[in-house]
């Protein structure tokens, strides 16, 4: 369904730069992937906190080699450059998902949760995905691009994602300005210190996966059992029926 959008809800560099000042911002009407732009910028010395935003991505990347669709005028594709210490790397994923969940709270949305490891769910459907990717110089960490895709008014009707994906405006029943959403997510990112117990506790409290029977696809194998616990590195601990505990750092939880 084609939607005619008011100019005030369109993204542009001027509005983003003003709103996010003094944060360095790059904006693109259309780009292959904001992650690639962020990698280049990171290598050129971008400051921690610099952000790349695009209205459309034509080769957006999702987790585990999948694609991520960002049709023009309907979503947010953003990549935040961070320069963390290497020991807090696992917490970057938590930070992204948590910041998005808290932005949704601020919009007044009630049914917001995180599905391990980093899908943000609204009314039980995926509204956002997070993709942290690190850039290395040999064995030295140069930085991380924290990629976040947020469905704002993507219409999933009739698509294969209809029963599993959702957009903010469909749940909220009104139009939101994407610049406000970008600003709110960045504010929530700033609110937490990587490596802090507060960040871990807030992320864990939002995980709807804990206590559930799960099947997790990991390296082509399905691990089935009770999702018992997460550790401070974000790994999921699954107790199999035979009592064995399996620790997974990544995977896809079914359904
Ligand atoms: C997932 O599979 O759930 C993660 C999706 C991450 C998508 C975002 S959109 C902005 C950034 N650029 C990309 O190419 N991917 C991430």
What does this structure look like?
With 255 residues, the protein is of the alpha+beta class. Helix content is 25%, strand content 32%. A seven-stranded mixed β-sheet has the order 1-2-3-7-6-5-4, with helices on both faces. Strands 11-10-9-8-12 form a five-stranded antiparallel β-sheet, with no helix packed on it. α1 (13-20) packs parallel to α5 (178-190) and α3 (90-106) crosses α6 (197-206). 38% of the residues are buried. Biotin is lined by residues 33-35, 57, 60-63, 66, 68, 70, 77-79, 119, 129-131, 147-149. Residues 33-35, 57, 60-63, 66, 68, 70, 77-79, 119, 129-131, 147-149 line the site of biotin.
Bound molecule kinds, no repeats: biotin
Termini separation comes to 28 Å
Helix content: 10-25%
H-E string: HEHEEHEEEEHHHEEEEE
- Largest sheet features: 7 strands, mixed
The shape is globular
Report the mean per-residue pLDDT as an integer. 94
Which residues form runs of ≥5 with pLDDT under 50? none
Q: What structural class is derived from the secondary structure elements?
A: alpha+beta
Q: Beta-strand percentage?
A: 25-35%
What structural keywords apply?
255 residues; alpha+beta; 25% helix; binds biotin; 7-stranded mixed sheet; single chain
Short summary:
By secondary structure, the protein is of the alpha+beta class. It contains six helices and twelve strands.
SSE blueprint and pairings:
Layout: H1 13-20, E1 25-31, H2 34-43, E2 51-57, E3 75-82, H3 90-106, E4 112-115, E5 119-122, E6 125-137, E7 140-151, H4 168-172, H5 178-190, H6 197-206, E8 213-218, E9 221-230, E10 236-239, E11 245-248, E12 252-254
Parallel strand pairs: 1-2
Antiparallel strand pairs: 2-3, 3-7, 4-5, 5-6, 6-7, 8-9, 8-12, 9-10, 10-11
Helix pairs in contact: 1-5, 3-5, 3-6
């Amino acid at each position: 369904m084609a939607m005619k959008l008011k100019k005030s809800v369109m993204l542009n560099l001027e509005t983003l730069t003003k709103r996010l000042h003094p944060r360095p911002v790059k904006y693109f009407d259309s780009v292959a992937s904001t992650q690639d732009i962020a990698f280049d910028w990171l290598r050129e010395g971008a400051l921690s906190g610099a952000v790349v935003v695009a209205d459309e991505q034509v080769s957006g990347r999702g987790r585990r080699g999948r694609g991520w669709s960002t049709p023009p005028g309907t979503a947010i594709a953003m990549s935040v450059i961070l320069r963390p210490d290497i020991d807090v790397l696992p917490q970057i994923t938590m930070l992204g998902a948590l910041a998005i969940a808290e932005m949704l709270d601020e919009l007044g949305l009630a049914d917001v949760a995180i599905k391990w490891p980093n899908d943000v769910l609204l009314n039980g459907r995926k509204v956002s995905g997070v993709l942290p990717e690190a850039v290395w110089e040999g064995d030295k960490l140069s930085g991380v691009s924290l990629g976040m895709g947020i469905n704002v008014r993507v219409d999933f009707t009739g698509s294969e994602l209809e029963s599993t994906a959702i957009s903010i405006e469909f749940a909220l029943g009104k139009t939101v300005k994407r610049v406000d959403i970008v600003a709110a997510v960045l504010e929530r990112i700033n609110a937490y210190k990587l490596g802090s117990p507060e960040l871990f506790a807030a992320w864990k409290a939002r995980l709807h996966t804990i206590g559930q029977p799960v099947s997790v696809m990991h390296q082509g194998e399905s691990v089935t059992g009770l999702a018992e616990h997460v550790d401070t590195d974000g790994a999921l601990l699954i107790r199999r029926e035979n009592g064995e505990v399996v620790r997974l750092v990544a995977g896809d939880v079914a359904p």
